[in-house]
Amino acid sequence: MYQPRPSAVLAAFLCTLMAPAVLALPEDRAQPIVINADQALRDEKQGLTIYSGNVQLDQGTLHISADRITIFRIVEDGDKIVAEGQPARLQQLPNLGEELMHANAGVIEYYKAEERVHLKQDAQIEQGGSIVTGQTIEYFISEQLVKAKSNATQVDSRVQVVIPPNPNQLATESEAPSGDPESK
After folding, report:
1. Spatial separation of the C-alpha atoms in residues 133 and 129, rounded to whole Å
2. Which residue ranges make up each domain of the chain?
3. Can you give the pLDDT at residue 22?
4. For tag attachment on the chain, is the N or C end more exposed, with fewer CB atoms within 10 Å?
């Protein structure tokens, strides 16, 4: 019987989990960004704005909560957004009718020009019971490429993927006759 390589299974699963999350509802991009924080500092010379103290960022179904959010303007507004916390949390509705995607990490970075999201420091993504954890999780949006890594300096550090059973498959399997002669 053919057994796919674990790395191929992981890559396929991560792509299905992450792709909708980052591309999210089209309506979200048309919504205003609302940021609430205890403090805000805008540095025109450096091209950045720092929000600190119980920061909440909302845009449509996107919600980010963090201790600190820094928005860097290199070429245009929001070229790089960094959320930091213990942990920083992100949630978003990928598509209508789907479950919310939840992500958390010590640092969540979004690079607009590179179309890349980088979760680091105990990263975790969960959607519909599927969970991916690792020291870092990186998603290259345009390439639909996901990389999850463990902490190379820790002996027990590993990437972990939890895939819940498919309820439709469980129902089908329970209806199939078993190979046990006593069950007939």
Report:
1. 13
2. 6-183
3. 45
4. N
| pLDDT tens digits along 107-118 | 999 887 787 889
Q: What is the CA radius of gyration of the chain?
A: 20
Q: How far apart are CA 130 and CA 180, in angstroms?
A: 32
CA pair distance 87, 58, nearest whole angstrom: 17
Residue 128 Ramachandran class (φ > 0 left, ψ -120 to 50 alpha, else beta): left
Instruction: Please name the helix (run of DSSP H) or strand (run of DSSP E) that holds residue 13, with its range, or none.
Output: helix 6-23
CATH code of the domain occupying 6-183:
2.60.450.10
pLDDT tens-digit readout, 79-127: 889 999 999 999 988 778 888 889 899 999 988 778 788 999 999 988 8
The distance in angstroms from the start CA to the end CA of the chain is 27
30 versus 18: which is more confidently predicted?
A: 30
Contact 59, 28 (CB under 8 A): yes
Per residue, the 3-state secondary structure of 34-58, as one string, reads EEECCEEEEECCCCEEEEEEEEEEE
DSSP strand pairing (145-149 vs 116-127) = unpaired
